Each structure stands twice: as structure tokens, then as C-alpha cells.
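User: Last request for today: this protein with xanthosine-5'-monophosphate, please.
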Amino acid sequence: MVKKGILIVDFGSQYTQLIARKVRELQVFSEIIHPDDVKRLNLESYDGIILSGGPKSVYDKDSLDVDIDLNNPPIPILGICYGMQLIAKKLSGEVQRSRRREFGYAIFNIIKDDILFEGIPEKIKVWMSHSDNVVKIPSGFQKTGYSVNCKNASMKDRREKIFGLQFHPEVYHTDYGKDILKNFIFKVCKAKKNWNTSNIINRIIKNIRNDVKDDIVIGGLSGGVDSTVAALLVKNSIGKNLKCFLIDTGLLRYDEGKDVIKLYNQRLGLDVKYVDRSELFLKELQRVVDPERKRKIIGKLFIDVFESEAKKLKKARFLLQGTIYPDRIESRSVKGPSSVIKSHHNVGGLPEKMNLKLVEPLKDLFKDEVRKIGSKLGIPDEFLKRHPFPGPGLAIRIIGEITPEKIDILREVDRIYVEELKKNRIYDEIWQAFAVFLPIKSVGVMGDERTYENVIALRAVTSTDGMTADFYWFEKETMQKISNRIINEVKGVNRVVYDISSKPPSTIEWE
Ligand code: XMP
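Assistant: Here's the final one, the structure of the complex with xanthosine-5'-monophosphate:
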């Protein structure tokens, strides 16, 4: 049997996605799962399991547990931080709150031969982040390493089937972290490398053909990387049975509809119909202020429009969605809060009753994997590097009520902002940059006249996946130029401010 790769059980660690990405960088498939869902799975169809870290103590009343037979593990298991403590607790070892918490760098000393540490020096710098410690390792286990503040920093069972690490091999700060994971994946689990761009594409195409057969898939393209790559994959699977639309919600950026249609039809050979529904969207959004209501209304209208277009086509039974893996994880996080921070309309905003089934070819992929596939499918580089743009578009960048006048102003500001970033050759250094229309007016002076006009906030962030982000540090001259151009060229704006918050605690978008 060909095994599926590594299963990562998520106990709520901020690093869980990093574990998944590290495994995939080693060309092995990885899948993140909520502990409660483990019992549904046939564990033997995976090569191995990694139990992630987590914010709780294993003795907390509401701490998470997992239903795996640790006395007779079906496949190898590596517990990291909370994962190691859970293994210890479940096998009658002992975990205690330590007198000294350990956050940051520590020196880890290897004291026992361990297949996990093959080829690794005896002393390495590792990243610790814990308050609890395993004070008694379970019987049948051996201690394999320690640090100054953590006497049992690693352990393994004598059969070398279960391993525990108190430090985090998945983070960049741990020396040889990738080698440790590599040893676990290849030496212990004996996983095969099968996760590369060509395999991924073939696998997705096979699945789409299986699911869709000779039905028709309709897809709403937004000009974003995800929906475009998703559409090309479906086109490569079922050819002409893919019917695409670009729905103009009236909330797109400057000339976006026109530019994107040109790229699709002329360069990518996708047949995309332009459907202008801006009046409908803007009418339904009138006087709506709450961001989540905006998202729900837009999500529902998208589906209504798709369904009405679908009715015009015989056998249109599927709807294409560009949902990627982090969208799904953020919507079902063990921590809970991140799932309700914003209902990303790809996932949370779809109506419960829908007549179309979903096709989500990218649902298991991270953004960098999507870009690699896009490049392999011939999407031009300048398009793949476009900053992400949210489904609800400018609606969630106009704080409060949306009006046509505000949209016009914001579109013009955004055009100037992006133009300057490209001119200064910093567009590609920034993960996402955009302008936000604020619901306040401020006093200014232009020539000899007092003005009382709108305020625009600019946001630019660096990030790798949108889950965490930091604000971008501009040169003063660049900021000056951007702000001058906006205030001089866009009527109705007399003040520009810059957002200097990181995510967390803020989010990237303002709504
Ligand atoms: P936040 O604001 O949650 O954004 O830090 C993270 C990334 O997700 C994008 N985003 C959305 N994308 N529908 C989307 O398709 C949405 O409702 C939505 N809200 C945020 C955001 O632009 C950023 O790239």
C-alpha cells in the first residue's frame, strides 16, 4: 500500500503549520488534523504521526487528548513539546509545571544514541517554548538528551517507535531541526518522497476527473493567484467543460476586470465571460457597516449569481473554489478564536444549502506550492507575484458604509500606491499592500484654503503566508512621494496615515 505521508495532530501550537510545511519541503505529504478527528482515520495508511505543541498544560481540565494506542502504536510517533508531555502523561510518566519557564534558545545535549539524532553534533542550539516539563519519563522509555533547565529534553521508547522532543525542531532557530525531522520521516517512518510539483499536478488532475466525470464546472475567477491556478488545473483536467465567469462586484481595483480578462483569454487560453453585477452588489451592501455582514452578503450574492449562470448551462453541477490549505485550517483551528476572527468567504461565507458541489483543487496546498504549480502551468511571473486580494474586495477596505464615491476614491488611491511600489521596485519585497478608506474626516490646508476631507490609511506588510505579518519599513522619500501624489491627485483626500501594526495582534485587513 502506498502510504499517505505524515499526519500532524494539532494541539493548537502557533508552529503547527510550520511542521506541515517543513515535512512538505522534504517532499513528503503532510496533513494537519484536529485531535478529535484522529479516531475516524485508518492510521496505518500514514507513514507516521507528529503530535504538535500546544498552549495548554496536559493536566488542564479542558486540555486536548488524542485517541491513539500508545502501548501498541500502529505507526511511529513523534511528540513535540505538548505532544511529548501528552505521551508521558498517557503512559504513566509525570509532567510538572517547572519552576523556571524556558523560552528561547537553549543548548541541548545528546546523551544517548538515537536514530533521530544521527549525523547531528552532541551539543546543539535549540528553540524552547514551554512552562511544563516531563519530570518522569514513562517506563520502557529512555532519556536521550537534556538542557540546563530541562532534565528530560528528549526521550524515545526502546523499540524506537515513539519519540519525544521538548524543543521545537520545526522552527528556524533550532540548529539541525530539519535534519531531526528528516531522520524521523525517512529513517524511522521510512516515508517515500512523493510530494513534488509534477506529482501534485497529476494527482489533482486525476482527482478532478474522477469527481467531475463529464459534468460541467463553473468557476468565478477573481484575478487572484489561487482562483487562476485552480481554474487552469480544472481546464487541464476536463477541458471545455470548465465555464468561467469574472463577476464584477463593483468592488474590484482600478481596471482590474479588463486587465484580468485579457490575461485569461489571450495568454492562458481560459474562456472567461465577464458578468457585470456591480449594481446588484452595491445595492445589497447599502448602509451595511458590519464587516462580517458584508462578507456574508457578498458570499451569498456570489453564489446566487453563479447559480443563475449555472442554470443557463446543462449539467453544471460543480462550483470551482480557490480555497487553499491555510483557509481551511484557519476555519477549523483547535484554538477556536482564529476560526471566528474573519469568515474568509471561500470557506465560511458559503450558504449552508447550495445546489452546486464544490471542486477545490488547491485545498491541500500552501500558497508557495500554489505559486510553483502556477508557474509550471505557464502563468506569467508578474501575475503570480501579485499581492493577494480578498474575495470581498474593496468592501472590507472601506471602513463602515460603502458608497460609489468612496469606491472611486479608494480605487484611485490604490492605483497610485501600487504604481509607486512598482516604480520603486519594492512591490515584490512586500507581501501585501493596500489602502483603507477611513470613516472620518480631518482638517487640512491646501493653498490658502481650509479643507475638511477624507483620511486614507496605507498598509504594507511582509509575511510568508498571511498567518503572521509585520509592517513594512519604507524609506522616507518613498512614503513622501506616495503621500504627496495621493493628496495632490485624488480629490477628496487630505490626509494619509501609515499602519504600523503587526499580525498578531492586528490582522492584515482592517475589517
Ligand atoms: P487577515 O486580515 O485575516 O488576512 O489577516 C489574511 C489574508 O487573508 C486575506 N483575506 C481574505 N481573503 N476573503 C478572502 O478571500 C476574505 O474575506 C478575506 N479576509 C482577509 C487578506 O487579504 C490577507 O491576504
